[in-house]
């Protein structure tokens, strides 16, 4: 197997583990900090410091000219992340971590199908197929089973 593909699979698996850890960790932070918004703010501050340290160690710097030419949507990723962290802190303790993550994955896959189909946000176009839609419905069925 191509080493970059293997590294990508490992990174995806570990990032999934991080998603599962993030909600309960930040819920603990929210209880101490007084709100999901405070927890998200602290979480992003810690993440920003970690990324700054990584950038310094790796010697990477933003390309100012490249940043100026970006479409507006390229600047919205932080907003999605902020909503994700605050929503996870709020929802996971109330509906359970497994159900929250099942809903999260269902939402991710449904949105991914649409983005792929239209080639939106710079993605290569991958038309929706019956098998892909059925796969999402199987996962959404799993969401219902987890909830029961």
UniProtKB/TrEMBL annotation:
Q: Which InterPro entries match?
A: YdcZ
Entry's transmembrane regions: 42-60, 72-91, 97-115, 127-146
A Pfam family reported for this protein in Swiss-Prot or TrEMBL:
DMT_YdcZ
* Protein's UniProt keywords contain Signal: yes
Q: Kindly state one GO CC term assigned in the UniProt record.
A: plasma membrane
The signal peptide stretch is 1-22
Alphabetically ordered keywords of this record: Membrane, Signal, Transmembrane, Transmembrane helix
Superkingdom to which the source organism belongs: Bacteria
| PANTHER family documented for this protein | INNER MEMBRANE PROTEIN YDCZ
> What name does UniProt use for this protein?
DMT family transporter
């Amino acid at each position: 197997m191509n080493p970059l593909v293997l590294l990508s699979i490992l990174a995806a698996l570990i990032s999934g583990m991080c998603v599962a850890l993030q909600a309960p960790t930040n819920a603990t932070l929210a209880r101490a900090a007084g709100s999901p918004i405070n927890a998200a703010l602290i979480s992003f501050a810690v993440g920003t410091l970690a990324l700054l340290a990584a950038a310094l160690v790796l010697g990477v710097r933003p390309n100012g000219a490249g940043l100026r030419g970006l479409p507006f949507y390229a600047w919205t990723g932080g907003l999605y992340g902020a909503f994700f962290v605050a929503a996870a802190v709020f929802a996971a303790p109330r509906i359970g971590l497994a159900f929250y993550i099942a809903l999260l994955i269902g939402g991710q896959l449904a949105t991914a199908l649409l983005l792929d189909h239209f080639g939106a946000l710079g993605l290569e176009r991958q038309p929706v197929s019956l098998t892909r839609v059925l796969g999402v419905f199987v996962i959404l069925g799993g969401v219902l089973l987890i909830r029961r």
